[in-house]
Amino acid sequence: MAGERVKLKNQAAQASVPAPEAPPAKLRRAYLPAKERRRLIIEAAQLVFSRSSLQGARTRDIAKAAEVNQATLFEHFASKEALFHAAVVEPLLEAMRGMHDRAQSYEAAESLDEMRTLAQASARRQIETMVEVFPLFTAALFSDLELGKKLYREQIMPILNERGAAIRRLVKPELDVGLVEVAVFGMIFALAMNQTLGEGATDFAVLAEHLTGIAVTGYAKDHSKS
Length: 226
Fold this sequence. Notes:
- This protein is mainly alpha-helical.
- The chain has a domain at 85-217: Tetracycline Repressor, domain 2 (Orthogonal Bundle), CATH 1.10.357.10.
- It contains nine helices and no strands.
- The chain has helices spanning 2-16, 34-51, 59-66, 70-76, 80-103, 112-142, 145-166, 177-197, 204-217.
- Helix 6 (112-142) packs across helix 9.
- The chain is elongated.
């Protein structure tokens, strides 16, 4: 009888002790098609590269930002350099090609006022685009001097030359059209830099109006009437 009472007492004590909680189920990562996973990796890489550089960025940081492991990252991109090209260089070149296409619309203008209107609309879009890609632009050109030189000479300069050719008939014959295009592009870059690194309070439409005034009529005061 004593043994039975001990047995019952032990069973009661065990019943009063709560059962250990089961470990939380491990959350499974949602399945994404390869194309969507690649897009997310590129977006994460753009963020990391814009904060660092090609040499300073680590693939493990990119993988973490994209919420994948490094093995998955390298399934989509053979190297960090290949990822840099897809995430930084290709969007930059695509933005510049868009600017070139818009420059061709100037030739359809039948008057200076119409050209000014077209130029202002185009200038605004170009400034907006440059502000958007500014972090990528600086990462592509300035994170590595040799890489930036190669990119500028082999890919950016040809686009600038094409843009210059598109506005050849709109430029005074005594001016170097290539230099004009570089100057205009430089102003767009400077405005984007000011918007990104400065206060960034100026409206894009106002920027476009001033940029167009410089490009179409110049900035020197007309002394002919004085």
